[in-house]
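Every protein is a chain of amino acids, and every chain bends into a shape of its own. The fold becomes a row of whole numbers, each drawn from a learned catalogue of backbone shapes. The protein below has been through that process, and both of its lines are reproduced in full.
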Amino acid sequence: MKKQKKPGDNISLKTKKNEAPAIIDWINSQTNLMDSIRYLVENEIKANGVRNLQQHVPADRGFTFGDEGQGVVQEDPKHSPEYDDVIDEEEIDEDDIESWT
């Protein structure tokens, strides 16, 4: 059984070798990746409650950019004042590295 996460614990993410370019572009467009992911998680919980998403989405989604007619939104590159004091939680620790091997 995997170790349960607690508030303040690190999590690790790894992109696929064949990750869709739009996903990499989205990741690289974030000023605070963890806060952006947290926002997506919050919206998933609001819409569907707490659940194991892997039981509800296909493993192979065949994502291609433009499926929904969406485009890249250019935003003002100025850093938003509401995030000035957000701590960067994207550090990788030894437990993360060990879990990859």
Summary: Residues 18-64 form one domain. The mean pLDDT is 80. The CA atoms of residues 11 and 29 lie 20 Å apart. The helical segments are 21-29, 33-48, 94-100.
